[in-house]
Write a sequence for this structure.
């Protein structure tokens, strides 16, 4: 099948589209549950009265941090909108003048499904049904394809 991440997921066969929708839903929920939160706490070795330090109480997901640092003005609100469009199958085919967030997230989802990734100490192998649909070799083991390319998903 000749589908590319430039196209809407509606152009995928429905059985394969389900995996993209499910992954977009997972990413949406993970981003919603994990937002950077920094709090002030008393300094362990205070230099003056009332000395406070910043402590990270909660972090954004690693995949989001990587996307955020790879772009100048990467926005969380536009990420939610894009993931919501993808999970509801309303994403749009990429055009130079259109919002590129759908393309960015389709690409992330495609890589997670076809290459696999590591997250929070767990290995998630590629989806062989999706790989087969895209005419990529499938794996009979837990081998992770191109994991060195995905190191930023730790």
């Amino acid at each position: 099948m000749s589908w590319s991440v430039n196209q809407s997921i509606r152009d995928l066969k429905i059985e394969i589209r389900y995996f993209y929708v499910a992954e977009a839903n997972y990413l949406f929920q993970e981003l919603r549950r994990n937002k950077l939160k920094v709090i002030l706490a008393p300094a362990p070795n205070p230099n003056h009265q009332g000395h406070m330090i910043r402590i990270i109480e909660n972090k954004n997901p690693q995949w989001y941090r990587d996307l955020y640092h790879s772009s100048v003005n990467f926005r969380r609100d536009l990420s939610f909108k894009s993931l919501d469009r993808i999970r509801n199958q309303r994403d749009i085919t990429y055009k130079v003048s259109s919002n590129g967030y759908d393309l960015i997230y389709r690409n992330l989802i495609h890589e997670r499904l076809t290459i696999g990734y590591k997250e929070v100490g767990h290995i998630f192998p590629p989806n062989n049904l999706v790989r087969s649909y895209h005419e990529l070799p499938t794996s009979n083991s837990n081998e992770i394809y191109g994991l060195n390319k995905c190191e930023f998903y730790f």
Remarks:
- The chain has one domain: 9-153.
- The longest strand covers residues 52-58.
- Residues 9-153 form one domain.
